[in-house]
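STRUCTURE:
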């Protein structure tokens, strides 16, 4: 590669973004203020199971990229060398000169839902405002960075939900898509993984990497005429405080676990407590039950059993169910077995197996014209593909049970939280139940609406917050621990039905009456070709 910085800099975008930017420049539209919304239309669907919510991730890495990305001499030279099919320069000198002077994201403003927050389909996660040409160029890297990390954070939170309170280790870097493994590890930690085997990014993020040995360690000893026991003992001698042994290279129950127990007994005599064993193949539920018995009988009730073979949220769920059945048949305590399990989740997490991409999109929803901001949208024969136009705010409504009951999109000038607080403070609870409520409309079907009594609401909070204003950071960057804590709090506020791994209950995403009317008027305008509304 000639230059990795070129490949990963501001040219990390699609060619059509650059050609559109030149067209805007040629027509004098390039510096016109535009607004784009980034959102996803559908939750990840893994085939036999699907998600009922997502976890937002990737914003910090997007901001880092934007801070460094700009059109330098090298990028301008490469674009200057591009020609059309007839040999003419594809990019004109006046456009390249403008890029050389203005080709950075210093004029971009961003509002975003913070990382770690639970997010839902059709809700703007990121709102980009700025000069049309540069906001257009930003589309591809924004989608690349935010969609992938949100996808993996969502898979990770499902694994976390399935694992309960057990330790979850992310083991996927060897199966990841090149350097995407680093982004995937970060997203997995946001979503609920406790640690990762990915050493470099773990250190960068402030988390100690975790891992043990591979089958090749035992194989190397066997190739020299030594034994599995020799390999285990050598590992224990070097790492007496961190002794976690992979026991399925030869035969898990016949020699792997017995050899591990012999080594553990010697460690105990020296005053060390072994960490446990790892199972990487076979019937993990049956083996976990038998290994737990063997460890208990040998006096190691606290030794962990790490599972690491083709795990995901459904596999973990099934393993726990199978252990419960097997333990019941044999008079064992299933809970004590499950409590010692640690889940090493690799390929199926880092690749989001079953649904390998998040359908996040970046749609123009407003453009500043002489009369003011003009809302716009893409008209589609598929109603679900029509973006909700205009400058909006996003609100989360939490009910009296402390559970999120709806996300509400409103016009920017609307403030349902203030209206609720004013009304709630003015009326008694009895009157509220009868006379005061908030109207929630389906984004595409006005006949579907929900009337939510103010008395049933405990909190209405805005989700979008200012991140960048004309290229300048205007908020504190949270630590990874703060992001993880926010994810944990948001998930705890979800209804159990929405959290289900299989066939989750739909979550209510609605629009206000004013926003619905704006959308209706705009769609009618686009179909007739008349002047549209403004906002």
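SEQUENCE:
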């Amino acid at each position: 590669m000639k230059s990795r910085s070129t490949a990963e800099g501001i040219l990390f975008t699609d060619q059509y973004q650059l050609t559109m930017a030149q067209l805007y420049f040629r027509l004098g539209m390039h510096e016109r203020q535009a607004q784009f919304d980034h959102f996803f239309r559908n939750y990840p669907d893994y085939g036999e199971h699907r998600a009922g919510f997502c976890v937002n991730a990737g914003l910090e890495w997007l901001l880092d990229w934007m801070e460094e990305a700009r059109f330098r001499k090298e990028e301008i030279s490469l674009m200057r060398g591009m020609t059309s099919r007839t040999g003419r320069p594809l990019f004109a000198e006046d456009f390249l000169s403008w890029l050389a002077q203005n080709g950075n994201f210093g004029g971009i403003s961003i509002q975003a839902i913070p990382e770690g927050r639970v997010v839902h389909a059709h809700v703007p996660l990121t709102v980009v405002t700025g000069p049309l040409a540069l906001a257009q160029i930003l589309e591809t890297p924004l989608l690349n960075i935010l969609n992938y990390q949100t996808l993996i954070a969502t898979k990770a939170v499902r694994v976390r939900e399935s694992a309960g309170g057990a330790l979850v280790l992310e083991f996927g870097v060897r199966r990841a898509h090149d350097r995407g493994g680093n982004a995937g590890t970060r997203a997995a930690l946001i979503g609920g993984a406790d640690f990762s085997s990915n050493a470099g990014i773990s250190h960068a993020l402030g988390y100690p990497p975790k891992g043990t040995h591979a089958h090749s360690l035992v194989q190397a000893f066997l190739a020299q005429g030594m034994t599995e026991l020799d390999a285990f003992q050598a590992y224990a001698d070097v790492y007496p405080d961190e002794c976690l042994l992979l026991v399925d290279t030869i035969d898990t129950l016949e020699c792997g676990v017995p050899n591990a127990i012999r080594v553990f007994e010697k460690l105990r005599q020296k005053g060390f407590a072994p960490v446990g064993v790892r199972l990487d193949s076979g019937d993990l539920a049956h083996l976990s039950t038998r290994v737990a018995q063997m460890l208990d009988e040998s006096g190691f009730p606290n030794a962990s059993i790490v599972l690491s073979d083709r795990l995901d949220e459904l596999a973990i769920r099934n393993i726990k169910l199978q252990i419960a059945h097997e333990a019941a048949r044999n008079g064992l305590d299933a809970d004590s077995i499950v409590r010692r399990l640690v889940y090493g989740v690799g390929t199926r997490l880092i690749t989001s197996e079953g649904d390998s991409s998040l359908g996040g999109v970046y749609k123009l929803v407003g453009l500043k014209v002489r009369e003011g901001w003009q809302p716009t949208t893409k008209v589609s024969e598929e109603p679900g593909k029509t973006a909700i136009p205009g400058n909006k705010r996003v609100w989360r409504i939490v009910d009296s049970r402390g559970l999120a009951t709806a996300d509400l999109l409103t016009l920017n000038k609307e403030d349902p939280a203030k209206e609720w607080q004013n009304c709630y403070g003015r009326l008694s609870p009895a009157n509220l139940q009868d006379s005061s409520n908030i109207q929630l409309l389906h984004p595409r079907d006005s006949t579907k609406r929900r009337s939510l009594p103010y008395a049933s609401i405990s909190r209405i909070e805005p989700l979008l917050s200012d991140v960048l204003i004309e290229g300048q950071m205007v908020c504190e960057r949270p630590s990874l621990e703060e992001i993880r804590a926010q994810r944990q709090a948001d998930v705890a506020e979800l209804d159990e039905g929405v959290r289900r791994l299989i066939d989750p209950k739909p979550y209510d995403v609605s629009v206000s009456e004013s926003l619905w009317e704006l959308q209706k008027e705009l769609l009618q305008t686009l179909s007739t070709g008349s002047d549209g509304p403004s906002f």
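REMARK: The chain has 21 helices and 21 strands.
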